[in-house]
Input
Amino acid sequence: MISQEDLHHISKLSKIHLSEKEFEIYSMQIEKIIEYLDKLDEINLNESNDYKISITKNICELRNDVHVPFTGNFKRMRKNDDEGFVKGPKMT
Amino acid sequence: MTNRFQNYSIRQIHNGIKNEEFTSEEYVSYIIDRIEKKDEKINAFITVDKEKALENAKNIDKKIRDKEKIGILAGVVMGIKDNISTIDLKTTCASLMLSDYYPPYDATVVKRLKENGVIIIGKLNMDEFGMGSTTEYSIIGPTKNPWNLDYVAGGSSGGSAASVASGECTASLGSDTGGSVRCPASFCSVVGLKPTYGLVSRYGLVSYANSLEQIGPVGRSVSDVSTLLKIISGYDEKDNTTISSDYTEYDDLDLKETDQIISDLNKNKPFKIGLLQDLTNKADKEVSQYVYRSIDLLKENHLECDETDINSTEYALPSYYTIASAEASSNLARYDNIRYGFELNPEGYEWNSYYSDSRSRFGSEVKRRIFVGTYVLSSGYYGKYYMKAQKAKSMIKHELKTLFQEYDILVLPTVPILPFKIGEKIDDPLKMYLTDIYTVIANLAGIPAISLPVGFSGGLPVGIQLMADEFKEKNLLAVSTILERMVNIKKYADVF
Output
């Protein structure tokens, strides 16, 4: 059961603002989805199976950190440009 | 009116250009003309890069005239799903959040295609950040099914499948997190492959659910898909989950006789195909009858087939949506609309309100998945959902491993239903999720799976799905080739 309070908390954690109308819609939809996911509750975590997660050898190897000069278009990529700086909202 | 190019395979296009039967410029001009005539209705492309495509075509023609070496895919025209990075070509993920994003680098798959002479014609429509099964959750609106414009094209790589089916490109790339290549391939009557996890580099693929997603090729024939897989697969130092290139040798299946393919399959031990009976019987009759018919065709070719089942699939969809949403909530936390994004003046905002206000402009499905992901990872629920989803994933993988000791290929429907009307399921997210019920299995297990067109029901395409053990793409492609020759289905939609 997802309460309005739960959804307010999730919205805060996700940093996504919702209007009151959206709260109504999303709380109904998410409750239905979570109910469906509750099927997983039947699984017993202590029951073992033979499968073990295998890690391939190269997953832990890091490539050499080689400097490659950036050739992209900085100006095109930069948003809220202010004399060479990216302008953001105030920190409080 | 038919055009000589419309049924050409990758090999025919490349050879035609190389042997100067036609020029690369002529072929690209044909594709551009096709896009201009068709895409207004189909809406497969987000961005079309005509000038660059024509420039590249002219360069290929010049190289041929000057007797210079050309790449093995020179002249082939491809579209790329809009969540795969292309240098200086807008990559929006069909989202307002990246509406003006020009990547400073190419994804490894794009780099490999370009190195082999592929011409990129543009970027293809998709569900926002790959989250959806119909391409209805796109900022530019839905891609329509080229076989009937009132119906969905499938998703999330709807643009990748519809553009190939409607002849707006030779082939395309999509990405498959829970069926996003196979579902639209099935709905649009083209071939779509999800490779084994780790076979194809994900470097440059905009992250949604890293532990499940793979980039995969879409084409009008198994041979085209096989050719593309050969080019894009293999080790990449920029993606540590990729494997060495030992697994990337694929036959030129279009050059082999069917008898030869069958004999190769049975070389070491009798090749065995398993029909996943329970899942097939639960699908709509229009779909399941084609699966049974395909099995009959394989039996006619003296391939051993019998029925089997997997028990743990009841947990597949809840497990998939738990893991995918959890990873999405983490991956999409980076979108703060500061470094890139849409125009929203920061003046007058404080940091948190700017962040939450701009993020409220994510589309409805993305927000739903972020909320579900945040919930299942939140304190008190992690063990109940995420841990159990991982356990279910491991159970499914284990059960399939056991089955693959007996069977070489498993067969089931790609999607249990026929394509449905645009808007039909949009208000019921859970109903929409059920579209993925047969495709998520391969993503959870990390195994390869292909969707192959096998027929039409009421004018709408039907696809079947074949799955193999990890890195056994070769078997998957071989059986698909046999079946493709037997069913001989139309894969070029020219109805509008």
